[in-house]
Each structure stands twice: as structure tokens, then as C-alpha cells.
Amino acid sequence: MTRVRAAAGPPPARSAAVETALAATYPDATCELDFANPYQLLVATILSAQCTDARVNMVTPALFRRFPDATALAAAAQPDLEELVRSTGFFRNKAKSLLGMARAVVERHGGEIPASMEHLTRLPGVGRKTANVVLGTAFGMSTGVVVDTHVARLSRRLGLSAHDDPEKIERDLMEAFPPSSWVPLGHRLILHGRRVCHARKPACDSCPLAPFCPRTGV
User: Fold this and answer.
1) Which of 129, 164, 201, 205 is catalytic?
2) For residue 93, which of 69, 124, 55, 65 has the smallest C-alpha distance?
């Protein structure tokens, strides 16, 4: 039996159309987590796992008043930290990750959040997605595309990737789009997933991407 090999990546015309339509629809899209510096964004992103950005934004002001930097956070007692982040869900694991991250930042980087993928992903509780958020949004570095549940879903529906694994999806997106668009692309796909291309009932009739969307899996 002869197997037909799938084409590598989406047609360039579709990628260009997706980028153009998203840029026109969400020209000012950015991270919806509130932060003032890389430390605050890293903490907020860790807390955002399985939680809405709105809820995280309600929790972080008190957290940052109590622990304004990595050095202060590294000295926190876990029960106190758990109580502060309880409403974000999975609070014990998140408090453990925050403490581990802060202590590693103090021990390895003098209390400053490192501006490299290699160093960030070696911190406890920090994966590639979180590192991309911090590097792209706080440091303005285009190191990759943030792949959360929205980006993963839209990438498959739009025919931009056939994979389920976030790292493979990110690789496909990085091949399909120029580096200059990686950071805004992530923000715009997330916003589109929240507002239009919902998981259970996508609003295809009002979607600006509908003319060139193959609706894979819809």
C-alpha cells in the first residue's frame, strides 16, 4: 500500500491571509495579564495555568505588594503564598512552583529574571510557553510563538498544524510565519479564540478568517 505524504505546513497564501486578517481585526492585541516588569509577568503567567487572566489580575496586586520581587518571594512561607493564590486553582502546586522559581532566580541570577529561553526553562514551573510569554511581552524578544489551548485549537482548525503537541505546533507556526510576527500572532490567536473561535461552538458566520479557513475538526 502506497502512503501519500502530507504536505509540509499550510499553503503560504493561507498563512499570509491569516496574518493579515488577524492584524486587521486585532491590531492592538497584547497580553491581558497585568504586569509592570518581567518578574510580575512571570509570576502572573505561572498563575494563569487553568485559570482566567481576569482572575489572576484580581490576585496579583496583593501578591506583589507582599512580595515585590523574586528575592522577597523566595523568602515566603508556602502556607502564606498558598492563601494568596488560592482562588487561581491548583494553589498548592502553583505556590510550590512560584517558590521554586524565585529561589532559583535568586541563587542562579542574582534575583533578576533571565532574558533567555535556556535559562527560563530551567526554572521550576517554567515551560516553553511561559518563557515565550515573558520573553516576547516583557523583553520584546521574538523567540517563538506562545501556544496555549486557544492557539493549539485554532492552529488545527485553520490548517496551520496537524499536531496536538504544543512544541510541534509551535514549530509549524514558526515555519509558516516570519519571526517578526511570532509575538503578535500568539496574542491575536488567543484573543480570536476567546472572542470568536470558541471550543464548543465557534462563531464561523461572523469570523473574519472564514473565507480561507478549512474548518478542520469543526
Assistant:
1) 129
2) 124
Considering the candidates 34, 53, 69, 148, report the single residue annotated as catalytic.
Answer: 148
Residue 62: closest CA among 24, 38, 88, 100: 88
**Known catalytic residue: 129?**
yes
Residue-wise pLDDT for 41-80, tens only, equals 999 999 999 999 999 999 999 999 999 999 999 999 999 9
Query: Are residues 185 and 172 in contact, defined by beta-carbon separation less than 8 angstroms?
Result: no
Task: Give the C-alpha separation, 192 to 198, whole Å.
Answer: 8
Identify the CA nearest to 140 among candidates 49, 209, 70, 38: 38
Amino acid identity of residue 79, one-letter, is P
pLDDT at position 2 over 50? no
In this model, does residue 218 exceed pLDDT 90? no
